[in-house]
């Protein structure tokens, strides 16, 4: 099981989801210098302010609006800082983020040194991934019961080209949603069944298609490994529908969804 779900009490911690490589600025940097970094960065709207590794404050784009170009950051930064500890439960960090309206919490150790940062996106990802093991466990137990096999579970990267789909179509509107999640690192792992070396995609067809469209070659997955090859119904369905690779999946526009077409005909 992934470390995030195996830390004693099973509760994911801030250290399991925080970003460890944190961009920072110095208290002596100027407003101009930091403003330029925000503009040129990929999605940053502020930075922790550190003296060495010790956190002194946080400066946001809003803090810079009314400041003069040459002002040093220590004169405009917020120094009454809310921080998280690496051993804090992610759910507690989520409450702090929700109630404070802060999008990112610096994570500091007992000495006040910066060790990471956790964002609202990280918190969302942690909640998505918490739900996935329950789904995997239920499928694993079902397979063992129906097919009289023993099954194990692994967390690993899988090649998209090696996956055999088990549904023939995805819908364009939902695909857009999965692309949005993928771009922001919020995509939950796939669920795959390793049936004697054949990797059947049990859950995550829209995620896979979004990844394929974005040029991604591998994806994180929970893999259920069967101790012997069995005749799975989903494998028979895939073969019957001519599904060999994810390239065989069709993308259907929502306007042509069967239920929508039926409604249009009724009108």
Automatic annotation (TrEMBL):
It comes from the Archaea. CDD domains: CBS_pair_ParBc_assoc. The keyword RNA-binding does not apply. Pfam families: CBS. The keyword Signal does not apply. Keywords: CBS domain. Gene3D superfamilies: CBS-domain, Conserved hypothetical protein from pyrococcus furiosus pfu- 392566-001, ParB domain. Residues 18-76, 77-134 form the CBS domain. This is CBS pair associated ParBc domain-containing protein. It comes from Halospeciosus flavus.
């Amino acid at each position: 099981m992934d470390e995030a779900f195996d830390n004693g009490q099973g509760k994911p911690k801030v250290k399991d989801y925080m970003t460890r490589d944190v961009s920072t600025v110095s208290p002596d940097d100027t407003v101009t210098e930091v403003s330029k970094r925000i503009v040129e960065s990929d999605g940053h709207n502020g930075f922790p302010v550190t003296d060495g590794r010790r956190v002194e404050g946080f400066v946001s784009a809003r803090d810079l609006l009314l400041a003069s170009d040459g002002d040093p950051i220590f004169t405009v930064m917020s120094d009454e800082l809310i921080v998280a500890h690496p051993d804090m439960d992610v759910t507690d960090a989520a409450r702090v983020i929700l109630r404070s309206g802060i999008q990112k919490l610096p994570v500091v150790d007992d000495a006040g040194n910066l060790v990471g940062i956790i964002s609202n996106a990280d918190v969302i990802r942690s909640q998505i991934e918490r739900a996935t093991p329950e789904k995997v466990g239920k499928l694993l137990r079902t397979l063992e019961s129906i097919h009289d096999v023993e099954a194990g579970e692994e967390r690993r990267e899988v090649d998209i080209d090696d996956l055999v789909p088990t549904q023939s179509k995805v819908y364009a509107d939902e695909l857009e949603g999965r692309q949005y999640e993928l771009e922001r690192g919020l995509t939950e792992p796939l669920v795959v069944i390793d049936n004697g070396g054949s990797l059947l995609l049990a859950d995550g067809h829209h995620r896979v298609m979004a990844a394929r469209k974005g040029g991604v070659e591998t994806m994180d997955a929970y893999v259920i490994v069967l101790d012997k090859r069995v005749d799975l119904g989903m494998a028979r369905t895939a073969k019957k529908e001519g599904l060999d690779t994810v390239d065989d999946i069709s993308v259907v526009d929502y306007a042509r969804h069967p239920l929508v077409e039926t409604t249009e005909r009724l009108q």
